[in-house]
Write a structure and sequence with these properties.
single chain, 230 residues, alpha/beta, two-stranded antiparallel sheet, 30% helix, globular
């Protein structure tokens, strides 16, 4: 269906949470992963003109599509996926998403909603944003529910999976604001390997010796070059 004026106002509120030099891209989790608008400056206040949905959920494919986008070296890139975490039609499994996340330059945060919160979010989207799903689903191939692997995928990037109940308000604006606030309070650590890094994957551990009890979210390593085939 088409978005309402209140739905466009909701998008403007999300865009307004960003800084003038930030950019915003919107994908939908549906049978097919749809890019509603590409990466655009937040100050352009991008709006949705039309959106169709049939109720099936390609959670894994949508997160993977977000993770494989190249990240500019001089910019930080955060992905916020708002979902109940139940996949019903993706071509990719949760373990593949985890493997892609390990090599991605983005930081992944997943706001996982419980079933009641997901229904509340769907009602909010339909009433406020014009995103209305069918009232009945005649064909659901499967329901893949693997929050543990999705949590691992997010933490490999320095992000996290946020369980139901973390967000006081289960609407997109509130969830985006919480993740943005957390992301902006993090530090950027840059490093250069000595002597040249061997091709392949290299594990990293970040510690704060003066505060060993701190809970640290950081990337778990980096990939250097591509090994030649044997």
């Amino acid at each position: 269906g088409t978005t309402s004026s209140r739905g466009k106002a909701g998008l403007r509120r999300i865009a307004a949470l960003l800084r003038p030099d930030d950019r915003l891209r919107l994908l939908t989790i549906d049978t097919y992963v749809n890019q509603i608008f590409p990466m655009l400056p937040a100050v352009s206040r991008p709006a949705i003109a039309h959106l169709t949905a049939n109720g099936l959920s390609s959670v894994h494919d949508a997160i993977a599509a977000s993770l494989i986008r190249p990240v500019e070296p001089n910019r930080r890139h955060v992905i916020i996926a708002v979902t109940a975490g139940i996949d019903s039609i993706s071509a990719l499994g949760a373990r593949t998403v985890r493997d892609i996340a390990q090599r991605s330059g983005a930081t992944l945060h997943i706001g996982r909603l419980d079933i009641d919160a997901a229904r509340s979010l769907a009602a909010f989207q339909c009433a406020e944003m014009g995103w209305c799903y069918p009232t009945s689903r005649f064909w659901i191939p499967f329901q893949d529910h693997d929050p543990g692997t999705l949590r691992e995928a997010a933490r490999l990037t320095g992000g996290d999976l946020h369980e139901p109940g973390v967000f006081a308000d289960a609407n997109p604006v509130a969830i985006f604001k919480q993740v943005f606030d957390d992301f902006r309070s993090s530090y950027v650590l840059r490093y250069m390997p000595k002597g040249g890094a061997r091709a392949g994957w290299h594990e990293l551990t970040v510690r704060v010796p003066a505060a060993p009890s701190y809970l640290i979210h950081a990337r778990k390593g980096y990939a250097a070059g591509i090994s030649d085939p044997p």
